[in-house]
Amino acid sequence: MMKRALSITYFLIGFSYTFLLYNKIAFGFALLLGLVPLFLLKKKNLNFKFKFKFENKNVDLFFFITIIFFLISSYFSIKPERSILVVLYFIVFIIISLNLFFLLIKDDESYKKILNCFIISTLINIVIIFFYDVYQSGILTGDFHQGAEIRRYKGVLNIISILIILLFFFKKSKFFFIPVLFLLPSLYLSNSNAPILGFLVGILLIIIFRISQKFYVNKAKILGITIFLSIFAVFFAKQLPQEFDINSVKKQNFTIPISILDAHRQFIWGFSLSKFIQKPFLGYGPDTSNFIEDGQKVIGSEHTGTMKFIPSHPHNFFIELLLETGLLGTFSFIIFIILLNYRIFIKANYLDKNFLIFFNGYYWGASLVNFSYWQAWWQGSYFLILCLIASKIIRISESNSKVNS
Description:
Elements: H1 2-14, H2 16-22, H3 24-46, H4 57-75, H5 80-106, H6 108-137, H7 157-170, H8 177-189, H9 194-212, H10 219-238, H11 246-250, H12 263-276, H13 317-345, H14 350-366, H15 376-404
Helix pairs in contact: 1-3, 1-6, 2-3, 2-6, 4-5, 4-13, 5-6, 5-15, 6-7, 6-8, 7-8, 7-14, 7-15, 9-14, 12-13, 13-14, 14-15
């Protein structure tokens, strides 16, 4: 009876992204119905204890600081009830992923069964998406129109794309080149640009990492790079639209060509940054962009039609966090993410380091142009996938330590 119950939990967790193809609620329920019983069953079986903190003081400290700043921002939020709810989700996602990690490094059966389900699910998902997109595109009937956009799975492809690449991380097999061949036309037919940006950022970070391995990198060099990136970010922000009255909008002369960055996104980012300056420390509250004053006004440019200054969110995770949680919330969160990944990074072998870097480059790169960071399935996916990556890395590290000892 217990084996059957455990098999169901493994299936629900491993196939959660197949449920995502149906809708986001199904994805959430699959994970919930898989994880909660799994923890309860393993508590009896393995004496598994639920934990609420990481096993590193610095990570724990900045996780705590991030939560404090997010909660303070929520208290002063323009929509307190909305902000507090997403912060609670944020905490829950991290705690659940943390405990799944501790379980997977301890329990061979859970690790292998969930991972196998996860791999099979990813293969099934891209096949479904590929054939759906091909059918809907009209290629089979000779009614294909170049530039047509198949939107049904466009958003889901943002996460499926990185899962396909991570197949090579979890299991070495030339067979996994086949789903890559299914992925490429799916990205084209759905006009998915965010995954392309994610891939480019991921590759760029790997190149930087490999170059850095050939040189000694000290704190002074890291500080220099940080200052350079900060200056570049300020310079970039200055190139965005700065005035948002109707006359200025109509006369806007774009410094950044709209062929590189579309006019609507330039207005969104410029407007959002102008609002951020008004509340720079704690922002307007998590998940409140849609309710900021004047955000729902129609821009009025010939390039943007009836589009608004903030269509639900800024379509850039960094600007969104600045706008909604301020400098304090944003940078405490970034430090937390860096420290968390660093603890995994130092345990990884050279190849796995590359995959960890690529995953982060992809996720945060794609997040520069797509969903709100507070979208539950998108935010939760980061910590869930990072948990799976960390599980493999730590298991290998501990196995090597036992062999050497």
